[in-house]
Amino acid sequence: MELRGRRGWWALGGVVALAVIAVGAPNVWVARSASGQVHGLADAPDRSVAIVLGAGLTEEGRPTPFLEGRLDIARRLYEQGSVDAILVSGDNRTHSYDEPTAMRDHLVEAGVPTDRVVMDFAGRDTYDTCVRAKRIFEVPDAIIVSQSYHVPRAVAVCNAIGLDTVGVGDDSARRFAGPYRAGEQREYLANVKAALDVLSRRDPVLGDVEPGITDALAQARTDDK
């Protein structure tokens, strides 16, 4: 009985060790991949495009405070000349829920020219957005914008699929302490999913190449002359 009990404890210890590795390794990967690639707004390097990830809409169809924070960072990046175009990427699986259009409208109302904002209607998660930015919208390089706790994962994923990306995080939503803390805690498991997505190289919803970003960057070059 004593030997059997010891074997049980060894088996349990092995399971715990595997679980720690399964969760810990992806989090180490994210931290290392994003090291030196996350910046503040004031010291953000110049890149071609800001990518804004969706973060939900209110019942009235407006951006949530979390999404407003992301959009305001993207607007300021554009205004200070750090980027020439903005790709807003969100969920539009139903006619009644349209994140990208709400995001575009918010930016235009804030003064960003319409022809500098491009919408991705199939950015259902961070991995999908990164892959589609590279393969569908042909983004050459980017600053990805999200809440600060999410930015390292987004930077790690985009760079892993071959899109040269740095990140700028928004902290304005910290005033919503409960949801913000929940988002921070959720990252531990979200990093595991991100690692699995990158390893599997799964294809998101794709389709034909869309010229919106190429056209916006061409217009920016024309305006600069």
TrEMBL record:
Domain DUF218 residue range list: 49-166
Domain of life: Bacteria
Cellular component terms per the entry's GO annotation: plasma membrane
Taxonomic source organism: Janibacter indicus
Transmembrane segments: none
Lineage, broadest ranks: Bacteria, Bacillati, Actinomycetota, Actinomycetes, Micrococcales
InterPro entries reported in the protein's UniProt record: Cell_Envelope_Assoc, DUF218
Protein's name in the database: Protein SanA, affects membrane permeability for vancomycin
Any Pfam family hit: DUF218
Record-linked PANTHER family: INNER MEMBRANE PROTEIN, PROBABLE PERMEASE, INTEGRAL MEMBRANE PROTEIN
